[in-house]
């Protein structure tokens, strides 16, 4: 007995391919930087969103506090992040990406980011609006589904 293959719209299939290649780029960039996927995700998160407390970083990475401490220690030792005193509460610590980490990540991702901008620039304003509307709807759908999964996991389902 064969498992039925779901049929997806060609646009949905393209989106799945884009997501797959995004994951592959992240894996290859992490590998090039000498990091594992979790360490690279931590650096990316800090670069995109700024400093985080170790506890907040653990939540964002879906790790225990102990595992996150190990990640932070590894990244500090390699010069990718630093620990600093929280600006409002001197008893707390924040973790932030270093300029070296930014330069290393951007050196790997800048080409694909520039190509992406060129692709967008080649679209008419109307096409850009359509693509943006589609991506916002997909983002909203993915966020809602993530929340449903989190609620299911929290409810023991």
Automatic annotation (TrEMBL):
InterPro entries named in the record: HTH_MarR-typ, MarR/SlyA-like, WH-like_DNA-bd_sf, WH_DNA-bd_sf
HTH marR-type domain span: 8-140
SMART domains assigned: HTH_MARR
GO biological process: response to stress
Listed GO MF terms: DNA-binding transcription factor activity
PANTHER family in the record: TRANSCRIPTIONAL REGULATOR, MARR FAMILY, TRANSCRIPTIONAL REGULATORY PROTEIN
Name of this protein: MarR family transcriptional regulator
